[in-house]
From TrEMBL:
UniProt region (Disordered), positions on chain: 863-897
EC number: 2.7.11.1
GO molecular function: ATP binding; protein serine/threonine kinase activity
UniProt name for this protein: Phosphoinositide 3-kinase regulatory subunit 4
GO BP: any one term: late endosome to vacuole transport
Cofactor: Mn(2+)
SMART domains in the cross-refs: S_TKc (SM00220), WD40 (SM00320)
Superkingdom, taxonomy of origin: Eukaryota
Organism, as annotated: Sus scrofa
Domain Protein kinase, chain residue ranges per copy: 26-324
Localisation: Cytoplasmic vesicle, Autophagosome; Late endosome; Membrane
Signal sequence coordinates: none
Amino acid sequence: MGNQLAGIAPSQILSVESYFSDIHDFEYDKSLGSTRFFKVARAKHREGLVVVKVFAIQDPTLPLTSYKQELEELKIRLHSAQNCLPFQKAVEKASEKAAMLFRQYVRDNLYDRISTRPFLNNIEKRWIAFQILTAVEQAHKSGVRHGDIKTENVMVTSWNWVLLTDFASFKPTYLPEDNPADFNYFFDTSRRRTCYIAPERFVDGGLFATELEYMRDPSTPLVDLNSNQRTRGELKRAMDIFSAGCVIAELFTEGVPLFDLSQLLAYRNGQFFPEQVLNKIEDRSIRELVTQMIHREPDKRLEAEDYLKQQRGNAFPEIFYTFLQPYMAQFAKETFLSADERVLVIRKDLGNIIHNLCGHDLPEKAEGEPKESGLVILVSVITSCLQTLKYCDSKLAALELILHLAPKLSVEILLDRITPYLLHFSNDSVPRVRAEALRTLTKVLALVKEVPRNDVNIYPEYILPGIAHLAQDDATIVRLAYAENIALLAETALRFLELVQLKNLNMENDPNSEEIDEVTHPSGNYDTELQALHEMVQQKVVTLLSDPENIVKQTLMENGITRLCVFFGRQKANDVLLSHMITFLNDKNDWHLRGAFFDSIVGVAAYVGWQSSSILKPLLQQGLSDAEEFVIVKALNALTCMCQLALLQKPHVYEFASDIAPFLCHPNLWIRYGAVGFITVVAHQISIADVYCKLMPYLDPYITQPIIQIERKLVLLSVLKEPVSRSIFDYALRSKDITSLFRHLHMRQKKRSGSLPDCPPPEDPAIAQLLKKLLSQGMTEEEEDKLLALKDFMMKSHKAKANIVDQSHLHDSSQKGVIDLAALGITGRQVDLVKTRQEPDDKRARKHVKQDSNVNEEWKSMFGSLEPPNIPQGLPKGSDQEAIQAGKPPRSESSAGICAPLSTSPQVSEVTNVQNRKPTIQVLSSTILPSTYQIRITTCKTELQQLLQQKREQCNAERIAKQMMENAEWESKPPPPGWRPKGLLVAHLHEHKSAVNRIQVSDEHSLFATCSNDGTVKIWNSQKMEGKTTTTRSILTYSRIGGRVKTLTFCQGSHYLAIASDNGAVQLLGIEASKLPKSPKIHPLQSRFWDLAYPERSYVVAGSTSSPSVSYYRKIIEAAADPAPSLGTSICCRYGPKKTKKKKKKDIFSWLFYICFNLC
């Protein structure tokens, strides 16, 4: 467009919204600013937000059509340029005298991004600068020059992808150096007076009309368009390079521009150089790059492609070229429109990403940057997706990615980039996401080893208030996560506070510190902030300890209750934590909670000190008499640990020893081991005199002989008496009148000791019956003494179990997930899963159908109606309708008349039978069933049938597998019970001339074969071994294998014999006979020879599938092992029967021979 536009005053000024009146696809959203040249607005479109630039036509002679064609051509050329965003559409509105340009909306440009938190770090600035040059290179290769590159036209997405936009080919190439009107009108849209235009674009004012001429005649253009201006005004690549250099310089100087208009004109004349601004660029390679790009002589500026090659490995890391640019470009394509897709793609490629980004060093110039900071670019992609994720799996995958990358990121990235999004996820609508976000947040913050000064109060002011609501979350899983991580959160918060305090003290002691004025009374601030932190954490801990769900309390105790003691200090650990934990033992219905108490009480007691032993003594004694044996074991372990840590006073130790000693005869193995562990620890802690004077009397009733080394567990275990029988113990413990039982047992014990002359039988018949039952189960006098030793424990345990039963009856109705069917008045019903087929005219079936009217609606809804379906009236005569009306419906019904859809329930056996019987059924099922049966059969019924079919198939598969396993196993019949060998001589075989190496019996036991070192294989008839004949001779002899025959085996289910000799020969022999032992024959079927002189150790697997004649045999696998001379040591044969379609054919056997050659 000509320069004359700068001097034309608009005749009418309209708001930008007024231009959207007749544009139906776009809805005006808001104004983005207006200048004399363009009015800019944001509009809504069905595909997203767009930017609309409105140009008000003041001069109707402007050649807008040519400019529109030029923009269309530009869009086509830049179609494949992934870092360029041209105008997508140009519209000319003659009615309103306006032209409109449309492009995609991007929220941030580079000018805004430089000053927006989180601020760009060094690697991100390099990445953006690299993309700016890449965008310029892509445009230039496409034959496009931009003409107005500036920070406002460099768009930066939320994941730091650069888009070069607002290509200004319609703006004038040359401007007068002595008149700023054109510059202000076309290029200074931000009113910052910042100039990015190459100096050669400012030309002598003599080429332009004077202002006096223009004032005399406003139609006089400032630029003579009729001259050779278009040829001389072509944009050059060097002009874009200069503008890009200015943008890169502003990027690395935190927004300080290189030139304003006056400075650029002075620079053009050689009177100014921006050395002061360039020196602010710390990186030398970037500073040299900018200096070359803004060279005053256009010929000295290189192409964008040349700068990318020149700075490869210097200003721009190698990974930009090899991995990041091609990998990140895929997310700029239209195929990845969903944030969920991006996260899943990154998770899939994470291993490759880590390998590439963490395996390359940054340039040496960036010494302050960590090696892994290239991951920041990937993190920006992940974090840009977090707020727009829709699916739970994608959110969990994003949290997984963050947790995996967090150890490789810097502190600033963790606190500024990651933490805000994790707090955002803590308010997600899905409980799983909230819980996982809290876990991820805790682990990420635990990685922070130093606290930046601007984040000193991040915990009390940001993190803890941000997750405070999770302690009262409606979902139990979220409260579980809070209880699981609050100890680590408290530790990390305290560490943050201590790091800040340490930094303040160091700054106070450092006289050269520039921030010493900001440090005031660090100790006072520390105490105040520590108290505030304690109050915040205490409030949440008390909330969790009072949670209605026991699993939350249990999780809190199992995950860092000791660390919370350290966090709160001794006083609060006793007042807050211990006081709440004691109440957990009152819950008699949840033994897991009571067990968790004893698991965690040791750490709390160790921190509070031995002063707590008087408080814990009754609690530990309560644990020793708990109704659940697991809790007793945990109480024993807790007592053992506390005794090791000297947390129990000596009188208490002896008292516990007297209570625990009877456990040495307890039927539970874990309890006995726990009691032994406590006794041995006590023996370590006390003197030898106390061991024999105070400890041994407790142990004497439960050991078989005196011992010396009581402190050794194995020694004590070896002398323990046999424990009480579990059946006797449980039966006595379950008896209702256990007190009377022990009274009678005590009287029987006194009689045995002579204290009582006689013990009369119990008067109560229930006790007499109970005693009779115990005696019938094998209770001896020794068992009675052991029961009496456990009397106190069993009485307390019996009482505790009775209390649990009473409480369970009181709380059953209020328990979640428990439905009392009797209270709801629901009666059980029964339906047969397997139906027998009934004929249509079966009277019983009709009677059953008639009774269906009494079935309630709920039963019909569950299993479908029993009434026959209505047949459509549209069926032609002579069709299946007549058959149905005649009383022979082609249907699939059970004995109860329940209809099943033929197309969806092939498992019903009736379907197959009916289909085979009547071919017209298929027509009926295709015309009637989809419309009628689908309505009458409910989903529950269909699912039940599918489950039944699945179970049938599973049962059938298990049956077939079991049958195959049984067929594959060798037949091995165990001898009858009580059988003992008598040593009777059955036969004396003396035909072999050397040692017999192997004897094998055929499957049917009619034959057995022997092999010997004499090189022969002999077949024997088993019937001759039963004493029916006087002579015992072999019926067959085979001696053509050569060498000493070391092994042989029968192929299962046949008379085929595989043999192997030490000369490397393996042969398969077939024994043929019509009726053994008549006319037997033996001949080799297959033979193979291995040269054993060759130093080889191999495992050979060979097999064949054929008829019983074994007409084909081949080697399948030969796996070489260590080289050594070897010989065949074993042969194994397996087969599996396979039935053919024709019943007369014989079964096909699958033969598998496994020959193993071992070392000689």
